[in-house]
From TrEMBL:
Top-level division of the source organism's lineage: Eukaryota
Pfam families in the cross-refs: CitMHS
Region of interest (Disordered), residue spans: 282-331
Keyword Disulfide bond: no
Biased segments, Polar residues type: 282-309
InterPro entries tied to this protein: Cit_transptr-like_dom
Cellular location(s): Cell membrane
Name of the protein in question: Citrate transporter-like domain-containing protein
Species whose genome carries this gene: Populus deltoides (Eastern poplar)
């Protein structure tokens, strides 16, 4: 493609530069409007500067990608309501055997969940679970947060629905879902294992010392188990009931009803007995003698005498009260338990339907059905099965992300119209052919640098068609391989620095803002691990992609 006129090139570059600055640095002091507004601003400038016409701008928006993204987000919302991510959180701490075991679990669960539910979703829901578990077990959080973010990025590379750039590649390349998965799966599995080994090597001493501290503190943890479970366990733990609760009131009434017949005159003393429990918090004695012993003053004696004299008169009324209370005591638990049983089974049935619809969606993907309409169909099926107003669930969808994509599509298309990306690729193409090893290395380095400089989704939009066209000139198999290499490298490149992917930023922000468990994952801590991990895992994965 020939270069556009100089004015269009300059204005298009300015519009893209503004988009890039706001996308990479959303809180920049002179214009802290955020990524979404930045993408819309870049798109608007492309039209205002006449780099694109309004019709070209609308045509640049890729509706299939937006439909697939929206559908998967709705499905993720319903999976969260169905406690899927709570179960994943519980798996992290179930029969854990120490710090190294926990690190492996986090890496594996994060990778698998990211491939199925997107890496951003997994990082959002698992970060606080990890902070709770590490605090409970007295472990340093940062190796586990690094394991979460890096494994989420690596795992998401194996599926078209794993991350936004894979969605773009899947739609543009038209590679079948199954072919995409099996083409990258070996690289993903080996990459997760290598990532665990790198984390182990870098933090072996820290994890070992933390495990010794955990063993030394075992007795204290067991002794204070209730408090720790309540504070840090994902499951909700209930406290003991207070003495003024309905549970204690029912116990008092049952004690009064179970007393001997000559206690029938003491129905009026239930309040006195309750006050005695409030002051002493001791055991409730069903014995009649304990009540008489506590009432040794003269006024109590007079009250007992009066109760005895009126016993015959009130005998019928009291016995009827007791029978009525007996019947209510016998019937109420039955009624409540049957209601709870029905509610429980309705909830279980609904959750099973959510899981079945999700599995059906994945099967449809593997069968090669249109991914966008499949995801939308699954989302609407869950809305119908829920049989409620879907507004609360739709409110949880990230519409700002959808709008960001719309603006980004227009902005990137405007940059393409300037001819700058084509000129740069024409210069690089002879050195980046994938029919020899040196070309693959150069192509990977270009993708790696651009993904961290311009973000991975714009990189895919800028390079995808050009890399695929160059590879298609060699063979159809090489075209598919070029798309898969682009998916692998652009995704793993997100592990290089904290700013490399949205998943990293999500983990950082979630950890910083988590109530009671806040932790600051710094840029340099991430970079120290990210550089060697990204280079090694990218290189190994390139040899396994077919």
């Amino acid at each position: 493609m020939a270069m556009a006129p100089t004015v269009k090139v300059v204005l298009g570059s300015i519009a893209f530069a503004i988009f890039w600055v706001l996308a990479v640095f959303p809180s920049i002091p002179f214009l802290p409007v955020g990524r979404t507004a930045g993408s819309l601003l870049g798109a608007m400038l492309m039209v205002v500067f006449r780099v694109l016409t309004p019709d070209q701008a609308f045509a640049a928006i890729d509706l299939p990608i937006l439909g697939l993204l929206f559908g998967t987000m709705v499905v993720s919302v319903y999976l969260e309501r169905a406690d899927m991510f709570k179960y994943l959180g519980k798996l992290l701490s179930w029969k854990s055997k120490g710090a190294k075991d926990l690190l492996c679990r986090i890496s594996v669960i994060s990778a698998i969940s990211s491939a199925l539910f997107t890496n951003d979703t997994s990082c959002v829901v698992l970060t606080e679970f990890i902070l709770k578990i590490t605090r409970q077990q007295n472990l340093p959080p940062h190796p586990f947060l690094l394991a979460l973010a890096s494994s989420a990025n690596i795992g998401s590379s194996a599926a078209p629905i794993g991350n936004p750039q894979n969605l773009v590649i899947a739609v543009q390349s038209k590679i079948a879902f199954g072919s995409f998965v099996f083409g990258i799966l070996p690289a993903m599995l080996v990459g997760v294992v290598v990532n665990i080994l790198i984390l182990m090597c870098m933090y072996w001493k820290l994890l070992s010392s933390a495990q010794k501290d955990e063993e030394d503190a075992t007795a204290e943890v067991v002794a204070d188990g209730d408090v720790i479970s309540h504070r840090f366990s994902p499951a909700t733990m209930s406290h003991l009931s207070s003495v003024n609760s309905p549970e204690w009131n029912s116990r008092l009434e049952s004690v009064n009803m179970q007393s001997s017949p000559n206690m029938s005159g003491q129905v009026n003393h239930v309040e006195t007995l309750r006050n005695r429990i409030n002051s002493t918090e001791n055991e409730i004695h069903s014995d009649s003698s304990s009540v008489y012993d506590s009432a040794r003053n003269s006024s109590a004696s007079k009250e007992i005498t009066n109760d005895a004299s009126s016993q015959k008169r009130d005998e019928t009324v009291s016995s009827r009260r007791i029978e009525s209370m007996d019947r209510s005591r016998d019937l109420s638990p039955m009624q409540f338990s049957s209601g709870d049983f029905a509610t429980k089974w309705k909830r279980m049935l609904w959750k099973s339907c959510v899981y079945l619809v999700t599995i059906g969606m994945l099967i449809a993907f593997f069968l090669g059905l249109n991914m966008s309409w499949t995801a939308l169909t699954a989302a609407l099926a869950l809305v119908v099965l829920d049989f409620k107003d879907a507004q609360p669930c739709f409110e949880k969808v990230s519409y700002s992300l959808l709008i960001f994509f719309c603006g980004m599509f227009i902005t990137v298309d405007g940059l393409n119209k300037t001819g700058i990306p084509s000129a740069l690729w024409d210069f690089m193409e002879p050195y980046a052919r994938i029919d020899h090893a040196a070309g693959i290395v150069i192509l990977a380095l270009v993708i790696l640098v651009l993904s961290n400089f311009a973000s991975n989704v714009p990189t895919v939009l800028l390079l995808g068609g050009r890399v695929a066209a160059s590879a298609a000139a060699i063979s159809a198999a090489d075209e598919k391989k070029a798309w898969l290499i682009l998916a692998w490298v652009s995704t793993v490149a997100g592990n290089l620095s904290l700013l490399g992917s949205a998943a990293n930023l999500i983990v950082c922000e979630q950890a910083h803002r988590a109530p009671h468990f806040g932790y600051n994952l710094s840029f340099w801590k991430h970079l120290k691990f990210g550089v060697p991990s990204t280079i090694i895992i990218t290189a190994i994965g390139l040899t396994l992609i077919r």
